[in-house]
Amino acid sequence: QAKAEGRNRYHFFTSTLSHRLREQRRIAANLRESLRNDEFELLFQPQIDVKTGKFASCEALLRWCPKDKTKAVTPDVFIPIAERGELIGDLGDWVLKKACQQAQAWKEKGIAIRIDINVSGKELEKSSYFDSLTAYRAEYALSPEDIGLELTENVLIKSDSTILDGLKAQRDLGVEISIDDFGTGYSSLSYLKHFPVTHLKIDRSFLDGAPENDFDSALMEAIVNVGHKLNLKIVVEGVETESQSDYCKSLNVEFVQGYLFSRPISADAIETLYVEQSK
Ligand code: C2E
Ligand code: MG
Ligand code: MG
Ligand code: MG
């Protein structure tokens, strides 16, 4: 009886696993086709300067918009699949180029907004990433300050010296570099000393519980203190309520980002917001 059950479970397991693999392969194939047909879009979410209440930077967030909308999945799902299937190189290049085009368009209109892009570890492994960044900057007449990079802790930890040297070179040029989802990856803070970063983006999971939850608020406060001691700017992501926003202010963080201020929106909508705040 137990044996039969075990066997059934095994069958169940293998069939869901192969189902999942098939599903991932299907998504990868659709992604590839969408890359050929340019069926992606960049949305932008403002990062608000707590002191002024205004924004001068935003995060670029990729959206997949295939003609058949039922095929679309969120970046949480398709980015890891793209990373596994080698597609991330082309996808990341699309994001980089699009962000640079947008930054140029804004500059030409006198709109001063830095665009931060999310970079996956797999993209950095390709030695050409920084060359592309440099080439696009030249092509679109951008300064290093115009495009920032967001990397997760785990990417930084796993980076070899070539990648770190590449990042340092960008940092020396004036590129802003954020550690994304800070607090969810590697647990030692001492490594921060060795990385050329300018901003810590505290993961929104810590904000969920703070300020009511003592553990979450203790972590938030500790991260802000360490970050400031190391001369890093702090960004809190996922701010959804006024009380969370007030809490961030009380911690003296530099930037806040979240649905309370704006969801990720189109480039045109960002322009409207920017013009509005400049009045
Ligand atoms: P992330 O870089 O940590 O981006 C923050 C995510 O939180 C975004 O989800 C954003 O829409 C969402 N968010 C912003 N404010 C709030 C809020 O107040 N509440 C809640 N609940 N969520 C909020 P999104 O756009 O679905 O992206 C998910 C992840 O996918 C990103 O996490 C990033 O890791 C990855 N991703 C997105 N675009 C790109 C890209 O162009 N390249 C790469 N490599 N990864 C990307
Ligand atoms: Mg990010
Ligand atoms: Mg994040
Ligand atoms: Mg994330």
TrEMBL record:
Domain annotation EAL: ranges: 24-278
Example GO BP: regulation of DNA-templated transcription
Stretch forming the signal peptide: none
MF-aspect GO terms: catalytic activity
Domain of life of the native organism: Bacteria
Record-given protein name: Diguanylate cyclase
Annotated organism of origin: Alteromonas marina
Full protein stretch here: 297 to 575 of 575
